[in-house]
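Example 3.
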Amino acid sequence: MNDTITLSHGSGGLQSNKLINEVFLKYFGNDILNQMNDAAQLEIDFKKLAFTTDSFVVNPLFFNGGNIGKLAVCGTVNDLAVSGAKPLYITSAFIIEEGFSIKKLEQIVMSMANEARKSGVKIVAGDTKVVERGNVDGIFINTSGIGRIYENVNINCANAREGDIVIVNGTLGDHGMTIMCARNKLGLVGDLRSDCACLNSLVDTMLEAYGGIHVIRDATRGGIAAVLNEISEFSNVTIALEENNLPVKKEVKGVTEMLGLDPLYIANEGKLCAFVPESHAQKVLSAMQKHPLGVNATIIGKVTEEIGQMVYLNTVVGGKRLVDMPSGIQLPRIC
Amino acid sequence: MNDTITLSHGSGGLQSNKLINEVFLKYFGNDILNQMNDAAQLEIDFKKLAFTTDSFVVNPLFFNGGNIGKLAVCGTVNDLAVSGAKPLYITSAFIIEEGFSIKKLEQIVMSMANEARKSGVKIVAGDTKVVERGNVDGIFINTSGIGRIYENVNINCANAREGDIVIVNGTLGDHGMTIMCARNKLGLVGDLRSDCACLNSLVDTMLEAYGGIHVIRDATRGGIAAVLNEISEFSNVTIALEENNLPVKKEVKGVTEMLGLDPLYIANEGKLCAFVPESHAQKVLSAMQKHPLGVNATIIGKVTEEIGQMVYLNTVVGGKRLVDMPSGIQLPRIC
């Protein structure tokens, strides 16, 4: 096989088949994908299905803690998981720049296969397009996924209620600051690394502890601030955060302070927030803390009795600060 | 709203929401999409599901007969339809270049909404990424789709059998030659236009005529030659085509002859081939010819009794010519 991707790899002919066999099927191969139908044919035995899509354009493609392939699988698995669904099947569609290294492509595909296996999803359909040099930056990946929505679970960003406790599963801003440092060649600061991870097993643990959790959302682009503002809007509630309780790694704190950034607005790829009725919050928190991806889980705030859609922060010096929807340019191509 | 896409439209904050509300929801809006969940939540009442994905990178974005948006909906609807499924739900994920015209984006989104409505699918989830100027060529779109596989239908590219009649629903090479002429500014030749169309209603008509059709495939990248070679391989059969019977528009014939190309290898976006047992071929053909997308349907060949995987053409001068898998660079970015 050639060392780099050529336009003929995207032409639907012999070279396309060679790439599919020697790279994609080699790592992704399973009983369904191997049939190479126009559409995967799946047997299902449930009535509520979750369906989601995300494209990934992260730059750089490889970073401390992951790469675009790992991110692409985790992102879609997480969108399904935080909808109260068991992720089952995903598709992967590649847009690759002519001249891209096949060795790098293999590394990316291996990471995808690895995350898919760990999170229990099958990659059942795919697509490959190649565009001329200079018309795409390296490689973009789309993943779409479907999952079975659990019975008796009703997670929805409109379900937050007064008194709900807001829990996150760990430190904020790790992914975004890792990408920013990598892109600006700031060098690696301490053990700064992306939190990129599939959260479906953590969500399972949380729902086993209490199946009635009101809202779960992963906090990606726009950080926890964007997600909390969306929940505040859709549920028509006010959310108060405690600055003292926000978990931020010292490496992230250092860089954000230096650059004048706020970890609340920095992207995560392995973090979620959950809105849990106060009566069950401690039980859910304890269960999370026993899970490898929730060791640093903590309560960061609650839904107040105030009227109106708002998110604010009770600061360490005793003031209040509005946490509004992020506006303007955040760091582009974070995911 | 600004006239062009900025990086902030992809940041997950206020401007992203504005774009979603003022462009995407404006045209795509439906009861499911409007809930704006991380994953669409769908009620389903069937057990066999088809799932597919495709990314679209066509250049130019607008061409005679369609645009990238129409293509993106038709392509995924067709992949479901030719799997013997009723297309139900699709996702749409955009990767847009900073500086792209919002007016053009709206035209593309309108076309998608239009095709979705006509073909009876709902767009239920989406994603938008913006990348810096020069890192993507205008706009790329991914669509993924799910559908309900019809009961008692078993369409599979491994199902072609000796004696099967090969039917196509109309002229070959229209899409590819339209794109080539547009890209090379050859000017429009006669009524040369893309055949881009959703074929699900035609497939329904065919299956009503005879539910036991062995294979249906749409003939996109690599043309009918690529598809027939794949079917020959997966079904382990020999396929003989009759050159006299190949339907090719005179405009396409003219340009392909001038450029030394073969319509068998040119992409279509509204053409399919079906493998039907001889006993039912006439019935299926007649039904197709009564459908607006099958007026020019015709028999182009059959599966012979010969042993081995091969596709060949009985030429008008009485010879035989091998129709092998396309190799090397075809026209890139045809879809």
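The mean pLDDT of chain B is 95. The helical segments of chain B are 14-28, 68-81, 102-119, 174-183, 200-209, 223-235, 250-259, 278-289.
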